[in-house]
Amino acid sequence: MQPTVLMALEDYVPVIISLISFYWITQVARFFAKNTENLAKLALVVIASAGLLKATEKLIWAVTSEEVLWMRSSLFILNSVGFTFMAWIVWYAQKNSQSENGGIWRVPIALVASILALVSYAAFMLPGRTWFFIALAAASIANITMIFFLVKQSIKLKVPISVGLYVLYFVVILSMVFLSKSPSATTHFEWIKQAANTLAAIIFAVASWNLLLRAKSNRAAPH
């Protein structure tokens, strides 16, 4: 169903919150591996583009009654790229590698190139929306992998609140998968979906902020 303008504007809220959260995560990573900085910047740009394109498409739809399908379709394609970069950054930082030989780029670029090649092949050569499900699966796997490494990092830094919140975030995300399979027959139900999305973003933000605070305190502590 066509969203209202207020609904479309609210869709920017989780996008902004999530982007701030990912920035905090990249700051945590930099404490352990400074050479993650450039890849982190690229990841943030890609993730921001994904969320802003989707939210802006909803606003255009609400105002003009015209859907812009390429903007909506870009969400999971861009997220599959951005989340892959983020998952690699978190893992790489945990290895505490300070190498400056550019090695941080090879694996994530190869993974992203493979994903994009597979999505492109499916879009042009396979029937239906196979490309969409490939992009969705890639984004989901990368997101789950990232959360796993964030939980691992939270345990390593002894931040139990972040451990619990990241797990809760995962549960809320799963519930959103079931909600997304139901058609939005009413404005009320669509608001429930958006509320769940915003709640997930807030939970993720609080977990990431607490992780950053602990990383900062550990860095400041004398060794």
Radius of gyration: 18 Å
Backbone shape: globular
Sequence stretches where pLDDT stays below 50 over 5 or more residues: none
Task: Provide a count of the helices.
Answer: 8
Averaged pLDDT: 90
Number of strands: 0
**Multimerization status:** single chain
Helix content: over 70%
- Given helix and strand content, the structural type is mainly alpha
Order of helices and strands: HHHHHHHH
Strand composition percent = under 5%
Q: How far apart, in Å, are the first and last alpha carbons? A: 58 Å
Q: Main β-sheet, in a few words?
A: none
What does this structure look like?
- It is built from eight helices and no strands.
- It has 223 residues and is mainly α.
Name its key features.
mainly alpha; globular; 0% strand; 223 residues
Could you provide a short overview of the structure?
This protein has 223 residues and is mostly helical. Helix content is 83%, strand content 0%.
Structural topology:
Elements: H1 5-10, H2 12-32, H3 37-64, H4 69-94, H5 103-125, H6 130-156, H7 160-180, H8 187-220
Helix pairs in contact: 2-3, 2-4, 2-8, 3-4, 4-5, 4-6, 5-6, 6-7, 7-8
